[in-house]
Amino acid sequence: MADLWVIGELGPDGGLAHISAEVATLARRLADAAGGSVTGVVVGAAPETAAADLATYLPRVVAVTDSSAADHAWAAIAAERIAALVADAGGAGNGGPGCILIGSGPDGRDVAGMLSVLLGWGVLVNATGVEWQDGGPVVEMSVFGGKLITTSAFAGGPGIVTVRPGAVTAEGSGGAAGTIESIAPTAEPALPRVAVVDRVAEAGAAAPIEEARIIVSGGRGLGGPDGFTLVQQLADVLGGAVGATRAAVDAGWISYSQQIGQTGKIVKPQLYLALGISGAIQHKVGMQTAETIVAVNRDPDAPIAEFADLVVVGDLFQVGPAILERLSSRSG
Amino acid sequence: MRIVVLVKPVPDPAAAAERLGPDGRLDRAASPAVVNANDEYALEAALKLVAEHGGDVTLLSMAAGSAPETMRKALAMGADRGVHVMDPALAGSDTLSTARVLAAALRDIQADLILAGADTSDGGGGVVAPGVAALLGVPYLSYASKIEPDPVAGTVRVRRISPTGYDLLEAPMPALIGCTQALGEPRYPSLKGIMAARSKEIATRTLADLGLADGSVGGSAATTRVVDSRKPPARAATRVVRGTPDEAAAEVVAFLAERRII
Ligand SMILES: Cc1cc2nc3c(=O)[nH]c(=O)nc-3n(C[C@H](O)[C@H](O)[C@H](O)COP(=O)(O)OP(=O)(O)OC[C@H]3O[C@@H](n4cnc5c(N)ncnc54)[C@H](O)[C@@H]3O)c2cc1C
Ligand SMILES: Nc1ncnc2c1ncn2[C@@H]1O[C@H](COP(=O)(O)O)[C@@H](O)[C@H]1O
């Protein structure tokens, strides 16, 4: 049971996705605690770079080259190749892993769901922390929009864990890079493939918010798309990313990929700076676990004033530029 | 075009009544249920698709006995019928069981497209739908912001949200699609829709009906268990800052420095 596998995802540049570096760090620590082994698996059309990156975190990496991943959706390919590797390794407990960890982003979820049914293993989702207890992983997660924190375990068998961004800070193993074993599978695919006809980059695609240490976020109070210029400037000077409420997204001021909340993204930055955001429950569930929440709102009774660490009661068009000026002169 | 939408009743995220019982399971009686928000976007997309291409929409839920009440709202929005999988043995199901049960129920329903939500608001991890697709052996197209079927060619194209924009995916139908809010705001049920929903059929299926009464699914087959649940630690009291913009800005910057954020 103590042998762990980490699934390495590829970032847009072909290197290891940041989330996978975090998951690898977490898994290495668990393996140390459990006295077990840890192996990374990277599946892709060109997995070499990501595999080499992953080997700086883990003692052993398996790189599976599947050329169909160049123009087909990754999840079905990865799930199938990983399931085959588990079988080849002898299955859970017989040389194969007792636990597989993967990021909880879109690709990680798709793979985890498919892998679960292919292997017949359970999944513990959205882990914010994982520990090793009594021979297995014990997973902490936040449920019902953060109203409860639960601790869960597998009921004795092997399992899959999806891990939220920010559960640990990525940290290389420090020693020599791990070994990399390359595999070119020959088996015909059984799961149907989904063709990627085109990969479209959209103008204005902003920095991803899930991994940002600092998020400056704007809501309806910005009054229009131009308000996001101020938000962006503050994000730039703080080295952060731009987030938004659904009201701002629905108004067409910013893209849905920046939306935080129940039907957007869940984030856990060190700082969440909210401008013109009321803090409705559906927004709160996406950002309430930020370490520090600072809000600027002219309404002292806005719900966000109940859970922010600091709230400035004032006009964001006056307070925002004043904060920007002070931050700029500090960093300049 | 025949479309099935997977809808899960979830505790209303806007209410604050969620509670776990001593067995670590949700005390559903304490929580008013609504249709999971992402599933409403899936339903809205389905209704638009049948308005354009013809066809009908079937809802599929695996849920406790009160589910029909929740399903009525989705029927009032315009879905044609519902299928409710319910069995005492299903209490305490994990995501693997849920995927197996939904897949088994789907084998009895003809569909060109199956639509699901990207995830559920009660703590779902977005793993049930890809599991169902893999069990059925149908293509899975996830995180959809646009769905364009070509009934003549028998294929469907989906824009899948990517970190930099979107990937344009294509697969043969039948296919399963994971849906997001980017597909568009769900309609409100009309009065006529509400009236019509009362007489729409919600068929009940037990595990025996699905050929699954062998202990392979449900609470007794659960692969995961909740060990402990607790309330999150309360946040510290809020510091309220007033004053001129410049004074306020000075306080904010000092606060960030104090916390070593800058
Ligand atoms: C099913 C469902 C899912 C949802 N999912 C999400 C989600 O994922 N994410 C999300 O964010 N929302 C979501 N919502 C919407 C949510 O309920 C709120 O409507 C939304 O979060 C409000 O956004 P807001 O704070 O920008 O706007 P408002 O609530 O209108 O708040 C604007 C705030 O700006 C302040 N303000 C205005 N002008 C100024 C100024 N000049 N200076 C300072 N302050 C000013 C006002 O005092 C007010 O507090 C969802 C709703 C539903 C029903
Ligand atoms: N019990 C269920 N009944 C019907 N559909 C479900 C059920 N559980 C999950 N789903 C579908 O699968 C999606 C993802 O769920 P989850 O993996 O729990 O986040 C949901 O948005 C639903 O469309």
Quantity of strands of chain B, as a count: 13
The CATH class name of the largest domain in chain A reads: Alpha Beta
Largest interface, per-chain counts?
A: A-B, 98 and 90 residues
* Structure summary, number of beta strands of chain A: 15
Helix content of chain B: 25-40%
Estimate what percentage of residues of chain A fall within beta strands: 25-35%
Q: What would your notes on this structure say?
A:
The complex is a heterodimer of chains A (332) and B (262). In chain A, 29% of the residues lie in helices and 27% in strands. In chain A, the strands form two sheets. Chain A has a nine-stranded mixed beta sheet, sandwiched between helices. Chain A is elongated, with a radius of gyration of 21 Å. With 332 residues, chain A is α/β, with parallel strands linked by helices. In chain A, a hairpin with a 2-residue loop joins strand 5 and strand 6. Chain B has 262 residues and is an alpha/beta fold. Chain B has a nine-stranded mixed beta sheet with strand order 9-8-7-10-6-1-4-5-11, with helices on both faces. Chain B has a two-stranded antiparallel ribbon with strand order 2-3. In chain B, helix 2 crosses helix 5 and helix 3 crosses helix 4. At the A-B interface, helix 3, helix 4, strand 5, strand 6 and strand 7 of A face helix 1, helix 3, helix 4, strand 7 and strand 8 of B.
Give a short synopsis of this structure.
With 332 residues, chain A is α/β, with parallel strands linked by helices. Chain A is 29% helix and 27% strand. In chain A, the strands form two sheets. Chain A has a nine-stranded mixed beta sheet with strand order 7-6-5-8-4-1-2-3-9, sandwiched between helices.
